[in-house]
Amino acid sequence: MKLPMKTMTDRIIALGADKVQHTGKTYLAHAIGVYQLMKSWGEDDEMCRAAMFHSIYGTEGFQDFTLPLEQRDAMREFIGDRAEWLAYVNSAMKRDTFYCQVALVRDKYPITDRLSGDTMQLNDPEFQDLMRLHLCDMLEQVERDNVWDSQRQTFRQMAERIGGAALECYDAVFAREPLQV
């Protein structure tokens, strides 16, 4: 399934999230930025759709817009199963239960769902996808947000584990970090 960018941005606008502020720009502009960055990494259409809607249900750190969970089926139908699942996990996860597993290699990764309290079991490919999505989101906004040291080692581990374009992007973004005087 291929969704044109305009179709996806029209959905965000229709949901009323286009004017919501997010790290010095609008939620829509941030979502487009994450989508474009993911695309520049050469990721598939599903990953790019997940990137566009990566925090559609709100996150631990972003609650200014949250799509009601009753709309998950409609979102799944719109962007596809894998993309919606990744967007949901990225939105719903308790980040500490994700971050503590980045350096681990295992078959299953238990991540706590902060919305339900349940444990979401991700297999290794899903965990790899979640790392790409979460890293991409952070790299798109870290310069505007100026929060360079938040989980830096964990994000570096993600970039190294993913490698390729993700690691190159991480290095390029962090090369622009202002010098501490």
Offer a quick outline of the entry.
The protein has a domain at 5-92 and 125-150. The chain has 9 helices and 4 strands.
Structural write-up:
The chain has 181 residues and is mainly alpha-helical. It has a domain at 5-92 and 125-150. It has helices at residues 5-14, 27-40, 45-52, 72-79, 81-92, 95-99, 124-145, 152-162, 164-175, and strands at residues 21-22, 25-26, 108-112, 119-123. It has a two-stranded antiparallel sheet with strand order 1-2. The chain has a two-stranded antiparallel sheet with strand order 3-4. Strand 3 (108-112) and strand 4 (119-123) form a beta hairpin. Helix 3 packs parallel to helix 5 (81-92) and helix 8 (152-162) packs antiparallel against helix 9 (164-175). The radius of gyration is 16 Å and the shape is globular. The N and C termini lie far apart (49 Å). The mean pLDDT is 94.
